[in-house]
Amino acid sequence: MRRYKRAGALIAAGLMAVSGCSNTYYNSPAATKAQESTKGEAEPTQEAIVTYTADPGQQEREPQKEPIKPEGGSVPTNIPVSSAIVDRLLGDSKGNVLYSPMSLDMALAMTWAGAGEELSEKFADYYGADRQAYEEFAKYYIAGTGDTLKIANSVWFRNGVTPKPAYEEAVKDYFNAECASRVFDDAFVTEVNNWCDAKTNGMIKQLLSEPPAPETMTLLLNALYFNGTWKEQYAEYQLGDARFTDATGKEHTVCGMNSTEDIYLQNDHATGFMKFYEGDRYAFVGILPNEKGDFSLEELDIPSLLKNKKYIDVAAMIPKFRFENTSVLTPMLSVMGLDDARYGGFTEMVEDDDNYISAIIQKTVIKVNEKGTEAAAVTGVFVNCCALAESATVYLDRPFAFLIYDTETDTVLFEGKVMLPDAAKQD
Predict the structure, then answer these.
(1) Which CATH code, of 3.40.50.150, 3.40.50.720, 3.40.50.300, 3.30.497.10, is assigned to 1-394?
(2) pTM above 0.85?
């Protein structure tokens, strides 16, 4: 009997850096054939479907009931923007990257509560909803979390700064945020890091290494902690050494976790599957691009992939992996259409000042093994006083030209073009 699943998805995007196992099941000819038959095909072949069978003791999954949402409905992640951010964070490197759209969205939404009318419209364009709709969704979402997902928010004001009553009321009511005034000194650094440590179950122990700059008046924090146990646990025989081919074509031995799942995803760019955690709300979505080697998440068109579900058996393998990232997200405001937030417009946050976002830092960590997935994110948004004067931004983040120029004599010593910065790093 076919088992149907409906749930939100937890998407872990990145190139896996993993280690080997002792079992060798996944290197058997039958299992290897099953793995290869699902790559780039319109759907798994019948041979792939029957090659690997799930644990006979696993139970049928009950369809999940739809949660009761606020009147404004849900406000889903802007996946195209999220994919663009991941691509830009990865840049030209070949490493792993992990980014939490939910954590950034929650943290920025708390700044939105302090935005003036003109800037607020920019936020509404990004979120695809007005402020009240998102705040109602945030309140509903935070209240609906349980043991699997925990969300915490806090707003820290520099001692002597007076938050506007309406702003403080909004972040407390809709985001369940702790609000406090502190001297931004070394003791504050310790307090913030202890908060991060506690709210992520020890996965992220430090966000700050020194006190914020003197111009920083407010620090907004979101912490997200996910601890999901697989609905259908892996048996010992489902674990074994597997081959993983990196973007350069080099093969590595990794610890493969093998199962049969029953939601297959497919579009013109990739195939994938869903594997659910206990409770049937959250799922790991594994996405395999059709083309081998490096890839762009934007080009995979993940929204269409998530919509194109087929309820068929699919042989699946997930390698164990663990990694962490620290990302400066401030430049990503331009990707989100929120670049104006870097120059002012937060007139409703504190008394007597027009504020702007000076920096956004996000730390993330994820661990995937045979028991489930543990992941955490902390996003810090630094808000400074006094709106910046008119300025411009030039990031050399794509092919560019350059000169070595003598400004006194108007003489060009060198002139060149850079297509790939890594090629210039031959020290």
Answers:
(1) 3.30.497.10
(2) no
